[in-house]
């Protein structure tokens, strides 16, 4: 009996000064009601209601906690509420963008949009855009092909260069003068505007092949200038976190350095490297300015990146908004632009999923 009384006394001491678990929810419900009332007084809106509710909840919950649990726990709860609030504020623009693109882009996604180009389409429905009596509103097939080809070639150029540069900086450079210079220039390249990369590629190929050279490969070179710094920095950080014990164990077994790098270091960091490559692709796949300078704009399908202008999804969106086919709503051009934006987001999402799949496939196997 005495032992039970002692245990109950200790439990009461541990729970003394604690608010019940439902107290925060009660405060939240009251804040929602009070926020709606205050918002109605100044002109009701969902945004105003949410802001007033959040302020009332944070202030009220902090005061209630200070009265019931003390000042120290009230400060802790206040900081917790602020952290959650910052997270929700950061999430709101993302949710808003996704919702808007889905709402306006889904109606435009159709077989016609995905598998036809804008070749010969000059208006919403006119004589130039009618085939066999059926109006052809045009689609983004040529832009999808151009985006995939240019991004593929840019990745093909950037990944080997960026990967080998990062390997040199981590495994061979060891802080020497050349490594410091490379690091400095990589940091500078990380912040250059995209239009500068486009002008550089256009000027380079104008010197080599003459003025006015605009092809998909020129655009790929321009995008690679933007991709390489991202690949280098992300790969460098991933290689740095590989434990030195793994390298030393391979060296102790007589494994050469290049083989240690290819068989031990890179496979260990492949997950982060894949994520970095994906981030670099996502960084450039939506660029518009360098594509306009280097690849121009095409309304027909072009499979050859070494000849002729090429269309991409970003330039397709730009021209659909810039040159609408109808002055009144609903405008087919605006619908095509939103559908292309949604398609671009889906492509980036698939790239991220593919990177995670590759990372899981090539990551070193662990056992308990």
Indicate the percent of residues in helices: over 70%
- Given the helix and strand composition, which structural class is it? mainly alpha
Question: For the terminal residues, how far apart are their CA atoms?
Answer: 46 Å
Question: What does the radius of gyration come to?
Answer: 29 Å
CATH superfamily of the largest domain: MetI-like
Give the uncertain stretches in residue-range form: 11-15, 124-136
Number of domains: 2
The number of strands is 2
Mean pLDDT: 82
Largest sheet: 2 strands, antiparallel
Task: Set out the fold topology.
Blueprint: H1 2-15, H2 23-42, H3 46-69, H4 71-105, H5 111-115, E1 130-131, E2 134-135, H6 141-173, H7 177-190, H8 194-209, H9 216-240, H10 244-252, H11 257-284, H12 289-294, H13 313-322, H14 332-362
Antiparallel strand pairs: 1-2
Helix pairs in contact: 2-3, 3-4, 4-14, 6-9, 6-11, 6-13, 7-9, 8-9, 9-11, 10-11, 11-14, 13-14
